[in-house]
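--- STAGE predict ---
source: upstream dedup step, 1 unique chain passed
mode: sequence only
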Amino acid sequence: MIAEARGSVGGTVFSRNQHGAYTRYRAVPVNPATARQTFVRQLVEDLQAFWRDTLTQAQRDAWEGYAAGSARVNKLGFQTFISGVNAYIAYNVFAIQCGLTRRDDAPTNTGSAGAPLITISATVADGLRVTGTSPLTAVGQAAAWYVSPAKPQTVNFFKGPFVSTVALNGVQATPIVLKAPALVSLGQKYFVGYRFADAQARLSEKFVYSAIVV
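--- STAGE serialize ---
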């Protein structure tokens, strides 16, 4: 039980990364209340109200059924499940930020969205770009790329915070120019997070790619 502990007890946080279990001091996170944070918080509140007051019972039941049949893998490698309302909010927060309209109908198939194969280019001349996605995104689909600060080449793992985002929907031709947080320089390493939503309202897992500027 101790080996698989997660969460916090008093001032100690139990967690796990690719190297194994660890503990650290529990620090109170800073709340900068950025425009994006404020927008997302209000959006979550609005979606909770839509779930409660706008969706029919049949729609809520469909989201609950979808969530119950869509296992997720947590940081410890165990299968977990979220509630129907959380699945509804998670999809719509992502979709609306990508420019799609709110969707109240649940996916017709369980599981997460499969992500396209992504190719990323990083050069001094052209900056950071998505040079290929296979297959291309289609109408009703959405994708978002999250770019890290510049890192040394010796850094092999990054989970955030990402500092810039490009969120798009519908058919997108490549290359897609990503927003590097500063002028890219030879030898810098960038991590690019990626998430995708299909036309059924299913979200993909979160993927992270890396590229070294040449």
